[in-house]
Write a structure and sequence with these properties.
By secondary structure, the chain is an alpha+beta fold. It has two domains: 168 residues, 3-Layer(aba) Sandwich (Aminopeptidase), CATH 3.40.630; 132 residues, Gcn5-related N-acetyltransferase (GNAT) (Aminopeptidase, 3-Layer(aba) Sandwich). The protein is 37% helix and 25% strand. The longest helix is centred in the C-terminal third of the chain and has 23 residues.
């Protein structure tokens, strides 16, 4: 039966998300809802599907952004596309559709960073033969999405999971419980302001950039209201001292944002938050819990080794993905794009040193 490709609209959002949720490499960042989040931050979401009969066999959210010069644009599929990427015949068909779409939209590149861990078999060689260029760093936080993450198989009994954690991690979870830390799971939209204050405090302490409040309101409106995300807040003696935002889709959950106050850190609220989110994900039928970004190395001298040690304490697997690849659709404009990017990053670093609150790491983020 021949394949056919087309763009879908909001009337098929549920069908599209059902395919993404059920796909082995499906990801929340490829969901219809995520495209709606990004639509509120300057992107145009395009949802491309390939069908065989009445069934979707391949899909991708392609985020389109118009560049400030030349009327050109870029296309980006975070953690996509979603199908069996080892099926070269299907991939070739999909690529032709993307090239056709790219010509219509004036795109100079299509960036992908699929959910494919190393080693990736023949995929990297295949991508190169089809015109893709690898652009990401070796590991950790290089690139638009984290190149390295910790992932935990949570398809086991809770007691077995807890026993697998590092002894210090188990101790800190129980310490938080003994000291009376309480995690609130049924948060409201009004609680976003509490979480954001904690996030600003964390960013100032640890020296990283964050997005403005409107971005988190978009996450609430497009993800939480669709039951694709949940906000958790930890309280100590009635005071909010930590918070986390987790995404969920199908049988997978992702820890995406975390924040904590400078005070009362000794009662270990972040450990209890993680344990609470893991159990929440298990109750929702998840088998995979993704801690998201981690350094690509266990080197104690790495500036983010503390983050590595914290996430490793939950006994997850350290995974490094194949990274970002650009399909060049316009060689001349692509060369210009690669020249401009370093200037953008230098500007962002300058803003970071000046204490800007707003994240601006990449126009693709």
């Amino acid at each position: 039966m021949p394949w056919r490709a087309r763009l879908i609209g909001p009337e098929e959002a549920g069908r599209y998300d059902a395919f993404i949720a059920a796909a082995p490499k499906g990801h929340i960042l490829q969901s219809y809802a995520w495209g709606q989040v990004k639509a509120r931050t300057g992107w145009q979401p395009l949802y491309l599907v390939v069908e065989e009969g009445d069934s979707i066999v391949a899909a991708a959210l392609l985020l389109r952004r118009v560049l400030p010069v030349g009327g050109k644009s870029i296309l980006y599929s975070p953690r996509g596309p979603v199908f069996d990427l080892q099926d070269q015949t299907l991939f070739d068909f999909f690529l032709e559709e993307v090239r056709r779409l790219g010509r219509r939209e004036g795109a100079i590149l299509w960036k992908i960073d699929p959910d494919v861990p190393l080693p990736a078999g023949h995929l990297p060689a295949y991508l190169r033969t089809r015109g893709f260029i690898p652009v990401a760093g070796r590991g950790g936080f290089e690139g638009t999405q984290p190149r390295s993450v910790f992932r935990l198989d949570i398809g086991r009994p809770a007691e077995e999971l807890l026993a697998s954690f590092h002894p210090k991690t188990r101790y800190n979870i129980r310490l938080a419980q003994r000291r009376g830390v309480v995690v609130q799971q049924e948060c409201t939209r009004a609680d976003l302001a509490v979480f954001y204050r904690l996030l600003v405090e964390t960013a100032r302490r640890d020296g990283f950039l964050i997005r403005g409040p409107a971005y988190f309101e978009a996450l609430w409106d497009e993800l939480v209201r669709r039951d694709y995300a949940r906000l958790f807040l930890a309280f100590y003696q009635g005071e909010p001292i930590a918070g986390s935002l987790a995404f969920i889709m199908g049988q997978k959950a992702w820890y995406v944002y975390g924040a904590s106050a400078n005070r009362h850190r000794e009662v270990m609220p972040n450990h209890l938050l993680q344990w609470t989110m893991i159990n929440w994900a298990k109750e929702r039928g998840c088998t995979l819990y993704d801690f998201r970004g981690a350094p690509g190395t266990s080197d104690p001298q790495h500036p983010l080794h503390g983050l590595y040690r914290f996430k490793k304490g939950f006994a997850g697997e350290h995974v490094t993905f194949i990274g970002e690849y650009d399909l060049v659709l316009s060689p001349v404009w692509y060369r210009a794009w690669r020249l401009v990017q370093p200037l953008h990053y230098r500007t962002v670093r300058l803003l970071a040193r000046r204490g800007s609150r707003h994240q601006g790491k990449s126009p693709l983020a």
